[in-house]
Structures are given as C-alpha cells and as structure tokens.
Design goal:
Chain A is an all-alpha fold. Helices cover 80% and strands 0% of the residues of chain A. Chain A is globular, with a radius of gyration of 19 Å. Chain A starts with a helix and ends with a helix. By secondary structure, chain B is mostly helical. The chains are: A mainly alpha, B mainly alpha.
Chain lengths: 193, 163
C-alpha cells in the first residue's frame, strides 16, 4: 500500500514537471519489466530494448494513467503489448532470412543448451531454462503471477483477458512447465520436485 | 492437464471454497495419487516463488532517462474544451429540435377526433393489503440499497482524504 502511494506521489511529481523523479520509478520497476521482456525476447539485448521502449512509452502516456489500478499493472500492460509488437516484427524479419541458416542456428542452440545443462546444475537455472522453453504467453503469465505480485484480476487487465481465462492459462502454463522440467532433467527430476 | 492437478493447483493458489479445501485436504492425506502429485506441484510452486529477477545493464536507468529527456513533458489529461462550447452546441440542437416540433404542430391539421380508451379494471381487487405490503417491502429494500451505497461512497471518500 505504501509502495502504491509512493508510486502515485512520484507520478504526480512527474506530471507537475519534476521529470527527474521518473528515474526512481524506472529503478523501482526495471528488474521486473526486464524479466518480463526476457520471457518474450529470449536474449538480453532485445529484452533491454523492449524494456527501455516500454518505459519511454509509459512516460509519454503518464498523463493518461487513471490511477484506478496499480502503476505496476499499467506498466505490465505496456510491457506486454510492446513485447508482442516486438515479437511480431521479429517474426516478419525472420521470414526474410535464409531457411537453411535458420535450421543450423536452431541446431546449434540445442547443442549449446545441452552443454550449458551440465554446467548449470542449480534448480533455478533449470527452472529458468524450462520457462524459456515455454510459449511467451505462458512464461509471461507465470512471471506476472509469481514475480509481479499480481492477482488473477490484475493479470487479466495487463493481458486483456478475463480472470478465469488467466486462471486456466496459468494452470496449463504450470503443467507445461512441469513437462519441460521433466524433459530437461529426465532422471534428475525427482531431485528438483 | 487432469482434474486432480487442476484441483490441487486451485488448492495451492487458495482459489477453492472451504468445502473443496476440506475435501482436497482429506484426499491428500488418504489418497497416494493425490499426495504424490501435491508434493510435486508444491515443489514447483515453491521453486517458482524463489525465482529471481533478471538484472538489466547498469546503464539501464540512465539510457531510459536520456530517451525520456528528449520527450515532451507529460501532463495530466484534463478536459481542455471550454464548457461554454459544449453548452452552446447543446443549446443549438435543443432549439433546432424545439423549432421543428413547433413547426410540425403548426402545420398539422387539428381536426381529428380522438377519444381516450377506457380501461375496465377493478382497482379495489388489485390494491389489496398483500400487494401494499409487497410494494412497501420493495421500497424499503431499495432505500436500504441506496443508503448502503451512499454510506460506502462517503466512507471511501473519507479514506481517500485520510490517506
């Protein structure tokens, strides 16, 4: 509650002309926004671009923030739409690349992944890898639910979905995550879960 | 995803009713399939809760602020339309409708012969003590609902002012 009030106070200050205060809002939310962006982009450079873009968009639209929901929920809506737009653009760009090159790249990724698997033995690393293997929507819902401290209703607002749809999608996402973990860990799965 | 898993996730997330909760708790303690799956799901749930954040680069805030400084200062969206403009548009349409109405009446021939229809019903049969009681009960319920919403609004406003 205190956090929410402070966010609102910062927004009021920015709208009153003290734009330097926006840096505090960025600092406060950048880790989560970046984490969410990583769920879509899968690499740091693109995720950083998405996260930066979303903070700039939020700044431009700050006057339209109605303050009826949490600032974070509003920010995650922007992050989600920015990331989806980025993915759509990326998909279009990918079509212009030679298909053979693509296949090779995917194969290399898989090999790198197996090599990394041996190195990263911690359960968190496995979990992050499993999340990376999920569809962006599934990964975003899991991240919003567990790391964004967002209720099903708030996630629904951020993703333009009904809370019940979010609930079903969250169940399915976790089920898929469990499958991915079992696929990654094979016999070691019992050690983690 | 099977039904057991769905039930258990609802239980773990606290999205089930008290009755469902009791039922699931009983199943977890008595049914091996339920308890095994519950332990698995709880392990995933706990791991997910412990997941850390990804860290952006050190210069992230600075980069954002550099972009932000190039933007126009945001302002709170307030109505910038003069209310007098709205009222004059409303008045224009109001006068136009009234004018058309007066004109339509003035050109209408008023030589029609119209009689009000007669309705043959017995009011004393409709207005009984039961119907009056029902009517009063509905009225009281409506007053209570209105009073409740009015008091709630007052309390919310007081809380907002307090915070």
């Amino acid at each position: 509650m205190q956090q929410k009030e402070t966010d609102l106070a910062l927004i009021t200050a920015v709208l009153a002309g003290n734009t330097a205060v926006y840096a505090e809002l960025v600092k406060r939310n950048q880790r989560f926004v970046f984490t969410l962006a990583m769920r879509f982009a899968k690499n740091r450079e693109d995720a950083e671009e998405i996260a930066q873009d979303c903070f700039v968009k939020a700044y431009r639209a700050l006057g339209t923030f109605k303050q009826t929901s949490k600032f974070s929920t509003w920010l995650y809506t922007i992050t989600y739409t920015t990331a989806m737009t980025f993915l759509r653009k990326k998909r279009l760009d990918t079509r212009s690349i030679n298909d053979d090159e693509n296949v090779l790249q995917i194969a290399n990724n898989s090999t790198d992944f197996d090599a990394n698997l041996v190195e990263k033995k911690s359960s968190h690393a496995y979990l992050n890898q499993a999340i990376d293997l999920l569809l962006p929507d599934d990964a975003a819902i899991i991240t919003l639910f567990y790391k964004g401290e967002q209720s099903l209703e708030e996630i629904g607002i951020a993703l333009s979905m009904e809370p019940n749809t979010v609930k079903v999608k969250l169940h399915r996402a976790r089920h898929r995550l469990k499958d991915k973990l079992q696929y990654l860990l094979k016999d070691e799965v019992k050690e983690l879960i | 995803m099977n039904k057991i898993e769905e039930q258990l996730w609802n239980y773990i997330d606290g999205n089930c009713t008290a009755t469902e909760k009791t039922e699931i708790e009983a199943k977890i303690s008595s049914n091996l399939q339920y308890s095994t799956m519950y332990n698995e799901l709880m392990a995933v749930h706990n791991e997910l809760n412990l997941l850390g954040f990804e860290e952006p680069s050190m210069s992230f805030t600075r980069n954002v602020m550099e972009h932000v400084n190039l933007e126009l200062k945001p302002v709170a969206l307030k109505t910038k339309v003069d209310n007098r403009i709205i009222y004059s548009i409303g008045a224009f349409f109001g006068i136009a409708i009234l004018g058309i109405f007066i004109y339509a009446i003035s050109i209408t021939k008023m030589d029609f012969d119209f009689k009000m229809p007669t309705i043959d019903f017995h009011l004393d049969k409709l207005v009984t003590s039961t119907s009056i009681q029902v009517f009063l009960m509905i009225d009281i319920a409506l007053v209570l609902v209105y009073l409740d919403s009015f008091l709630r609004k007052g309390r919310i406003n007081a809380q907002k002012k307090g915070s």
